[in-house]
Specification:
Layout: H1 2-24, H2 35-42, H3 46-49, H4 61-76, E1 88-89, H5 93-105, H6 110-123, H7 140-152, H8 160-171, H9 180-188, H10 220-235, H11 270-286, H12 290-308, H13 318-330, H14 338-348, E2 351-354, E3 357-360, H15 366-379, H16 387-398, H17 431-442, H18 452-465, H19 502-514, H20 522-534, H21 549-562, H22 570-581, H23 609-621, H24 628-640, E4 654-657, E5 661-665, H25 668-690
Antiparallel strand pairs: 1-5, 2-3, 4-5
Length: 691
């Protein structure tokens, strides 16, 4: 570790001079040995000098808890290549769509359909509907999709559970209150009229990169979802299942439905502009200019096939995958076409079987899970030279992106780098994964022939270049922040764009802080200013990718302290005070997903292991080692740990699209508590030896 850090310092000289020389640094043209690296070079650091115990229980509950959590995590590691991956759970919409996909293709596997139905019925709520996160209320789109999937599977509306579902759906406004993408899928099956679908013209693929309304001005996931969907909408498939299969879900007879979108009565605004544009495009859809449509279809098809390369399915995410299948079938691809069979294989790889049930993951998270597992193991005392971590580190190195992707249009670097989230997604590395991976690799001792230093330098330059003009970082793109585009009618899934966010920005500067950059550098200073502007009045920060303000506050404070921000600053102390005030009576922390809809619920919810760990990591980072809040939080984790070293957590604590789509990482409940316990032990020992 000592030699690696010294070598890395020398290699950083060139990069740092560039960082300073172009007006983006501290202006002195020098790079003193960063304080954090000085610290790592001199400290008798238990992170790198202790090994995991494999003995029987000790008399120290903390040591015993850490030991059991380490062994549990080691047992979850893939023995072949060293990576970790847990289940990534979402709501029932994916399982419903899986049944819909079988019927769209007219290739129904009745055994799988039966298992999917069993899962849907188990997840049905007492009021008859389906929710989008554990403990949540029934949600209209999830309920409509589940009802339709059950209808496709052969269940009559006269079944008792179907009657309850129908009543629930009608109580939420009926089928026409479902979101845009639900209506598109239902239109393909003839259950709603195509008039109900906002325009998604395939001709948008013709807008060049850099044009205000180009597909590259929307987020990566929107791009991958919308391009294939635009092909399908242009062809308007009609799968014959009976056009009145959902007639009972209409509040008024289907023929009396008014499809006009209501305009804002205040006069001109972007909302009205896009409604008018939607109306024009929908009229155009009825009589498109044929040669332009042909060119657009060819370009969209070409984009689709190119972006499937070196990826675990298009965009490596569920909706893009199934939309690509819809698109290829609309283009008359045969069932045995290599591109189609490859997408189907990736779809099947997302299926999770549990007894007589199955459900679908939205994607897989091996890079993310592996990075945090390494950090947790190392922070809890397993040295970077340990074979378990070395094996995982080698696997992470093998996943570095080495090709240019869509991000290159706004991010100019000589060499591509970064890490994606899944097993393969070469077009779309993201800054959040990259920051976590770099902090993990920094902790692992690898042979020189692994070229770890060169990799870190490439990734450092890429991450620097991905910083947005506002000082923050988005996840997959740079300056993807044209907020007026959120008024497009098909953008009702609340995540059309990928702007800078507090949690991702915090992660990025945490890595930069760990390798010696501090707030005297202009780029870091800009990031700190961005974070100050994003802070809420009560001291907390919003969490875009984790739920919610507890996650956001942890990410931001971790980054700010890493780049040398004074923990005694008023705004830092305000954040810590807010976090302490959110602690539950049992000593833990929790926050309901409802806080995305009502900020009055921020920091309120049943205590969970992952959210308690985030709160503890924040307090420990801020020097609150001996505070009663920290000690009570540690006691909560110790008392709720199971005998096998794991923790239980039924709640969803992660986010896909706020207010629309939520996630449950099955490994969050284990590696984050281990990380918190490990850091607590380390700093407790350090405090004791300094006295």
């Amino acid at each position: 570790m000592r030699n690696f850090l010294l070598n890395l310092l020398e290699r950083f000289e060139t990069t740092v001079h560039k960082f300073n020389g172009n007006g983006n640094g501290n202006g002195n043209g020098k790079h003193p040995i960063p304080e954090l690296i000085k610290h790592e070079l001199s400290l008798e650091n238990t992170y790198f000098r202790t090994t995991a115990s494999t003995t029987q229980k000790t008399e120290n509950p903390l040591d015993d808890s850490i030991d059991r959590a380490q062994r549990y995590l080691i047992n979850q590691q893939n023995i072949t290549d060293g990576h970790w991956v847990g289940i990534l759970e979402a709501d029932t919409t994916l399982t419903s769509e899986y049944i819909m996909l079988m019927h769209f293709l007219n290739r129904v596997d009745y055994e799988k359909q039966g298992k999917a139905v069993a899962f849907l019925l188990k997840q049905q709520l007492t009021d008859g509907g389906w929710n989008i996160y554990y403990g949540g209320a029934s949600e209209i789109s999830a309920s409509v999709k589940a009802y339709f999937a059950l209808k496709l599977a052969g269940y009559s509306e006269n079944e008792s559970f179907m009657k309850k579902a129908k009543e629930c759906i009608l109580g939420m406004g009926g089928i026409m209150n479902a979101n845009c993408f639900t209506k598109i899928y239902l239109a393909m099956f003839g259950q709603v009229d195509w008039q109900a679908v906002p325009a998604v013209p395939v001709e948008m693929i013709l807008f060049p990169a850099g044009f205000y309304f180009s597909i590259y001005e929307i987020s990566y996931w929107s791009r991958c979802i919308v391009v294939p969907l635009s092909i399908a909408i242009a062809r308007k498939p009609h799968v014959t299942v009976g056009d009145d299969l959902l007639k009972e879900l209409y509040l008024v007879p289907r023929e009396d439905v008014v499809y006009r979108i209501e305009r804002d009565q205040d006069g001109f605004c972007w909302y009205n502009f896009f409604i008018d544009a939607d109306s024009i495009f929908r009229r155009y859809e009825q009589h498109p200019i044929k040669f332009i449509r042909r060119i657009a279809m060819k370009m969209a098809e070409k984009w689709l096939l190119e972006h499937m390369e070196k990826s675990g399915g298009l965009g490596a995410i569920w909706p893009a995958m199934i939309n690509s299948i819809f698109a290829m079938k609309c283009l008359d691809y045969p069932d045995d076409h290599p591109a189609l069979t490859a997408q189907m294989k990736e779809v099947e790889a997302l299926v999770i079987y549990e007894g007589d049930m199955l459900y679908l993951q939205p994607c897989v998270s091996p890079v993310w899970d592996t990075a945090w597992s390494i950090i947790a193991m190392n922070d809890s005392g397993i040295p970077g030279s340990h074979p378990v971590l070395q094996k995982a580190g080698k696997w992470l190195l093998s996943k570095e992106v080495r090709d240019f992707g869509d991000w290159k249009l706004k991010c100019k670097v000589e060499e591509p780098s970064g890490w994606y989230f899944q097993y393969a997604n070469e077009f779309y590395p993201d800054t959040d994964d990259t920051g976590a991976v770099l902090m993990a690799l920094q902790r692992v001792s690898l042979p020189e022939d692994m070229h770890k230093e060169k990799t870190l330098l490439r990734a450092l330059r890429w991450l620097q270049a991905m910083q947005c003009d506002d000082g923050g970082w988005g996840a997959f793109d740079r300056n993807n922040n044209k907020t007026i585009l959120n008024n497009i009618p098909f953008a009702d899934f609340n995540a059309l764009l990928d702007p800078s966010t507090s949690d991702v920005t915090g992660r990025c500067i945490e890595f930069f802080g760990r390798i010696g950059f501090n707030k005297t550098y202009l780029n870091i200073k800009k990031a700190v200013e961005f974070l100050k502007k994003e802070q809420d009045e009560d001291g907390s920060w919003f969490g875009r990718w984790g739920s919610n303000y507890i996650y956001g506050t942890w990410s931001v404070i971790s980054g700010l302290i890493a780049v040398g921000e004074d923990i005694n600053k008023a705004y830092i102390k305000k954040a810590i005070a807010w976090l302490k005030s959110a602690q539950n009576s049992d000593g833990g922390w929790g926050e309901t997903i409802k806080s995305y809809e009502d900020s009055a619920l921020k920091g309120i919810g049943k205590s969970t292991p992952s959210q308690t760990a985030w709160a503890l990591l924040t307090l420990i980072t801020a020097g609150e080692i001996k505070s009663s809040s920290t000690e009570r939080g540690i006691d909560f984790l110790l008392s709720t740990q199971k005998e096998d070293g794991s923790w239980d957590e039924r709640e969803f604590t992660a986010t896909g699209f706020p207010k629309v789509f939520y996630l449950k990482y099955h490994m969050y409940r284990n590696y984050f508590p281990l990380m918190a316990l490990g850091r607590y032990r380390h700093f407790t020992h350090k405090l004791a030896t300094s006295q």
